[in-house]
Design a protein that fits this description.
Layout (H helix, E strand, L loop, with lengths): L2 H7 L1 H4 L3 H10 L1 E5 L4 E3 L7 E7 L2 E6 L5 E7 L18 E4 L3 E7 H9 L2 H24 L6 H16 L1 E3 L2 E4 L5 H8 L3 H13 L3 E4 L2 E4 L2 H9 L1
Antiparallel strand pairs: 1-7, 2-6, 3-7, 4-5, 4-6, 8-9, 9-11, 10-11
Helix pairs in contact: 3-4, 6-9, 7-8
């Protein structure tokens, strides 16, 4: 997709000032990444800011024990790494959960555009604010205040709500959701998550097979999340 077409489908760019759009066309670079490819890793020097055009990207962190934790799922229109505007060193990993397309700008070029476009600056601030709010919820959900089945149900319900495709009798998540990935999402181990999913499957709430996740009862999933 060319940069002009990308501007049309990304609200944060489409609503920018005309002068900003001209610079976006000049500075923007479109790239595609295959599923599983890392855009950058922790401590990499990252001098470009990325915005998702299509597909789904994951921001993840790995601790000293090499345990992974998927922090955010990002899709069309989401800014991936606005934090590099403060310092061009990555503090998190980013990989393609599905095949993705992104548009990117050099850090200095994007700051130049923001300097003369309050709307774009405000959208970057709002993007950061949304991530902070989600982190607050994640901190709450990973404490003993919320049981594991509630955590899993909550994350799956939100993923299905945000990305799910409504089909006859069920909602399909259009990218791979494995037991391992769910374990990374909630910070647990694969065996425990497998037991939780097995119980939900036996209750005909959902199924996960070969990476394909189907939700049969969104209401029941929501009930588990808030019980």
């Amino acid at each position: 997709m060319n940069i002009r077409s990308i501007i049309d489908c990304i609200p944060i760019l489409n609503k920018a000032e005309p002068a900003s759009k001209a610079k976006i066309v000049t500075y923007g670079i479109s790239d595609k990444y295959q599923k599983g490819t890392y855009l950058f890793r922790v401590r990499d020097q990252v001098n470009r800011i990325y915005i998702v055009v299509s597909g789904v990207a994951v921001l993840e962190r790995v601790n000293r024990n090499n345990d992974k934790r998927a922090i955010f799922l990002l899709s069309q229109g989401d800014i991936i790494n606005e934090v590099i505007l403060e310092e061009p060193v990555s503090s998190i990993n980013c990989y393609a959960l599905s095949d993705i397309e992104v548009v990117s700008f050099s850090r200095t070029q994007f700051l130049e555009i923001m300097e003369h476009d309050f709307y774009l600056t405000r959208m970057v601030i709002e993007s950061m604010a949304k991530k902070i709010r989600k982190l607050y919820h994640q901190v709450e959900n990973t404490t003993k205040m919320m049981k594991l089945d509630m955590q899993v149900a909550s994350r799956l319900w939100k993923i299905a709500r945000d990305y799910g495709i409504l089909l006859e009798g069920h909602t399909e998540i259009p990218f791979d959701i494995s037991i391992t990935f769910l374990a990374d999402l909630v910070g647990s181990n694969r065996e425990t998550i497998s037991r939780v999913i097995k119980k939900m499957s036996e209750d005909n709430i959902l199924s996960i097979k070969n990476g394909k996740c189907l939700i049969y009862d969104m209401d029941a999933l929501a009930d588990i999340a808030r019980k």
